[in-house]
Amino acid sequence: MVVGRTSGSRVLDVAESKGVPLVTTVDVLPGRAVGETVAQSKGEPVVTRADDGAPTVKIPKGATAPSELAVLPLVRGTGPQVQAGQLVTVQYTGVTWKDGKVFDTTWGSKKLPLTFRLGVGDVIEGWDQGLLELPVGSQVMLVVPPDLGYQGTSSKLADQTLVFVVDILDAHTPGTGPQVGKKAKPADVSPPATSTSGK
């Protein structure tokens, strides 16, 4: 149904099963960030990408974790800016600053991207702040201090500075469908959700 369709397409499939009509709507999104690569600065965690776009993060040896949220662009997308209240779909990998170990990821053959509502507490505060107004299609590294992560919770990551590499695949207001392809206007851990182990 979706083979050969371009990103941003919406496909409607009508079928029948045991005499019952079934209607399926599929929004086709890209699987990774697409845009201009941004050079990384010395001293930042180093991100490399596999052929499929899956990131690997290496924390610089002896580097001190920042005490405030760091939002570091890796790929600059050309889609509309992400706004609070929108449904945002992302691919991401999260590692701890302390040892660089992956604690969560959506990348993999049996994994799916994450969709959440931005700015309403669905995810940790570091995401709500760090992804706001970034263009769809971007890849960004978020370095999240404990107070904007899982501090004050029972999570094993409560006292950890976390590094996320996030590919923003889509952002849209509920009920309007995907915005892929539109140009920007001028101007024990599950996904980082507050409902389970986040802040």
TrEMBL record:
Family matches, as SUPFAM superfamilies: FKBP-like
Keywords: Isomerase, Rotamase
Ranges for region Disordered: 175-199
EC number from the UniProt entry: 5.2.1.8
Domain named PPIase FKBP-type: residues: 85-172
PROSITE patterns: FKBP_PPIASE
Pfam families for the chain: FKBP_C
Catalytic activity: [protein]-peptidylproline (omega=180) = [protein]-peptidylproline (omega=0)
Secreted found in the keyword field: no
PANTHER family: 39 KDA FK506-BINDING NUCLEAR PROTEIN (PTHR43811:SF19), FKBP-TYPE PEPTIDYL-PROLYL CIS-TRANS ISOMERASE FKPA (PTHR43811)
Similarity-based family: Belongs to the FKBP-type PPIase family.
The protein, known as: Peptidyl-prolyl cis-trans isomerase
Organism of provenance: Luteimicrobium album
